[in-house]
């Protein structure tokens, strides 16, 4: 069905279509609309799920963990401080190999208080063992949320998945949305290590120095399996529903001499900048990264990279440019720190970053001249 | 691409107006996006929201800086905000006002949306509703079809007074 929806409502609609048994969540700006909409679906009987209102995000994640370990599908959504409040339990969900799906509506962290888009919240959970996707429009938010369940629950993965949407910019914009009936695209969840609540039995959670590393390695092994599983989920999605996705979305990259690399909505706005630059004779392309964990292979090919960073590691550098530099040590990178706390960044600004690029340097938009 | 910037006060429904216009454009088989600019809103504070309409996919998320059309739902805002900022040459302004308004260098249309809302008793919590009647005016300007305007309103609201008010605005606006 074709309709028009906000990013938040698109996520809620995808969750409804994926039919989780349990949704546990705590509202936080700008995520609130996601859980409000799901609560409405449940109240109206359109969703046969148990909606658990909890007293904190930490409890939202533990409720999802408790549900998931019994072998049922669970979902939550959060943002910013809510995500960080879950931090301990995010490690727990990955360590217990539970395929929980979460939408994180990217928002900066206070103080000073700021409810607008920034990627620091997601970046700060980088090493928890969750898969992370960043999406660029309302349709992709819907589609990726559906894919997330299939990927997380794949028995070669069994890791939780976070779908990231830029706060307000994407969570609150209205765009067209085509909803689908996923059917067997998301097979029934079969958790091999589920606990049977009818016959409850726990097993020792203690792993000594001779075993613990094996469990850590198993998480990494699943991560290394994940690119093939994600590609399969994307290809099957294209076959069944006709929309194509990959680790990156590339726009006019074939003959490009300079690539704008970004996550989320900045990567969409970058495509408009590419058209402007091309009209001015500059061979630019846009490479929007969709997978953050696992971090994908990039077809950089010796080209200049103008990396837009919406999150920063203090004392080191822009997070996305650091990731790329670490994977491709020889890459020629101009790191542009832009869009923090919802700072307005237009396609003209992005085109300007490319025109004025100083390779190997860092530029703080609005601070540096 | 046609770009609309809506000026209103928090609680007057400017964001909903943007969503209704985008919905109607979408029903007309156009591409459309509606985006509120969220500040630290509270009731009564000046707010802006944006609508983009195009024949192609819209990839722009940043705010509208040179609108083709500015809609002012509360004329008193013009004392505090420069609603003409960045106006495209040849751009138009639609102001909710019972009296003609003269602004230099732009084509100004006025319509008494408040009066229309009051005349059909479209009042919620003591405030006249402006976001549904304004759709009638936008349809009269030809930016969305009359039919899609009414469908969009009915999709979001069950109270038929919203449709009545939009119809009245459609009749009343003179181009």
Automatic annotation (TrEMBL), chain A:
Keywords assigned by UniProt, alphabetized: Oxidoreductase, Pyruvate
UniProt entry tagged with the keyword Cytoplasm: no
Biological process per Gene Ontology, one example term: sulfur compound biosynthetic process
Record-linked Pfam families: PFOR_II, POR_N
InterPro entries cross-referenced by the UniProt entry: PFOR_II (IPR033412), Pyruvate:ferred/Flavod_OxRd (IPR050722), Pyrv_Fd/Flavodoxin_OxRdtase_N (IPR002880), THDP-binding (IPR029061), Transketo_C/PFOR_II (IPR009014)
GO molecular-function term, one example from the UniProt record: oxidoreductase activity
All copies of domain Pyruvate flavodoxin/ferredoxin oxidoreductase pyrimidine binding, residue ranges: 14-234
Domain Pyruvate:ferredoxin oxidoreductase core span(s) in chain numbering: 256-350
Keyword Oxidoreductase tagged: yes
Gene3D superfamilies: 3.40.50.920, 3.40.50.970
Subunit relationships: Heterotetramer of one alpha, one beta, one delta and one gamma chain.
Name of this chain's protein: Pyruvate ferredoxin oxidoreductase
Species whose genome carries this gene: Methanocalculus chunghsingensis
Encoding gene, per UniProt annotation: porA
From TrEMBL, chain B:
UniProt domain Pyruvate/ketoisovalerate oxidoreductase catalytic: residue ranges: 10-171
Domain of life: Archaea
Alphabetized SUPFAM superfamilies for the sequence: Pyruvate-ferredoxin oxidoreductase, PFOR, domain III
Assigned EC number: 1.2.7.1
Gene3D superfamilies tied to this protein: Pyruvate-ferredoxin oxidoreductase, PFOR, domain III
Keywords: Oxidoreductase, Pyruvate
One of the record's GO molecular function terms: pyruvate synthase activity
Main enzyme class: oxidoreductase
Family matches, as NCBIfam families: PorC_KorC (TIGR02175)
Name of the protein this chain belongs to: pyruvate synthase
């Amino acid at each position: 069905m074709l309709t028009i929806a906000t990013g938040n409502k698109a996520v809620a609609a995808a969750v409804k279509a994926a039919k989780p048994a349990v949704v546990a969540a705590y509202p936080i700006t700008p995520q609130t609309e996601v859980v409000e909409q799901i609560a409405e679906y449940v109240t109206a009987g359109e969703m046969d799920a148990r909606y658990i209102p909890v007293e904190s995000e930490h409890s939202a994640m533990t409720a999802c963990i408790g549900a998931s370990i019994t072998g049922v599908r669970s979902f939550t959504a959060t943002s910013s401080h809510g995500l960080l409040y879950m931090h301990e339990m995010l490690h727990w969900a990955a360590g217990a190999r539970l395929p929980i799906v979460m939408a994180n509506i990217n928002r900066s962290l206070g103080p000073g208080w700021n409810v607008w888009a920034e990627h620091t919240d997601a970046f700060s959970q980088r090493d928890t063992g969750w898969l992370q996707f960043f999406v660029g429009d309302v349709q992709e938010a819907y589609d990726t949320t559906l894919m997330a369940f299939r990927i997380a629950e794949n028995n070669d993965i069994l890791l939780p998945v976070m779908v990231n949407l830029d706060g307000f910019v994407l969570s609150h914009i209205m765009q067209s949305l085509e909803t689908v009936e996923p059917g067997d695209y998301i097979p029934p969840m079969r958790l091999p290590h589920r606990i049977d609540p009818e016959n409850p039995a726990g097993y020792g959670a203690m792993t000594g120095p001779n075993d613990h590393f094996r469990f850590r390695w198993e998480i990494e092994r699943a991560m290394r399996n994940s690119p093939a599983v994600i590609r399969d989920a994307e290809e099957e999605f294209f076959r069944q529903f006709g929309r194509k996705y990959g680790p990156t979305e590339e726009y006019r990259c074939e003959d490009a001499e300079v690539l704008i690399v970004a996550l989320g909505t900045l990567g969409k706005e970058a495509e408009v900048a590419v058209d402007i630059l091309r009209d001015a004779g500059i061979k630019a392309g846009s490479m929007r990264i969709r997978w953050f964990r696992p971090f994908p292979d990039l077809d950089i090919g010796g080209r200049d990279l103008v990396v837009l960073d919406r999150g920063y590691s203090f004392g080191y550098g822009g997070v996305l440019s650091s990731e790329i530099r670490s994977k491709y040590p020889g890459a020629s990178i101009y790191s542009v720190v832009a869009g923090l706390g919802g700072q307005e960044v237009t396609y003209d600004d992005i085109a300007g970053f490319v025109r004025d690029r100083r390779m190997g340097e860092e530029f703080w938009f609005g601070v540096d001249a | 691409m046609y770009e609309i910037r809506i000026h209103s006060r928090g609680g007057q429904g400017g964001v909903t107006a943007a969503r209704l216009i985008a919905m109607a454009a979408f029903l007309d088989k156009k591409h459309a996006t509606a985006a509120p600019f969220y500040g630290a809103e509270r009731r009564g504070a000046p707010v802006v929201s944006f609508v983009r309409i195009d024949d192609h996919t819209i990839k722009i998320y940043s705010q509208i800086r040179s609108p083709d059309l500015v809609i002012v739902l509360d004329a008193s805002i013009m004392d505090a905000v420069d609603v003409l900022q960045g106006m495209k040459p040849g751009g138009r302004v639609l102001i909710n006002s019972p009296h003609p308004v003269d602004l230099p260098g732009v084509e100004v249309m006025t319509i008494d949306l408040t009066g229309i809302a009051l005349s059909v008793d479209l009042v919620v919590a003591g405030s006249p509703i402006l976001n549904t009647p304004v759709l009638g005016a936008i349809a009269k300007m030809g930016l969305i079809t009359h039919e899609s305007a009414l469908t969009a309103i009915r999709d979001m609201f069950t109270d038929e007074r919203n449709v009545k008010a939009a119809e009245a605005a459609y009749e009343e606006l003179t181009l």
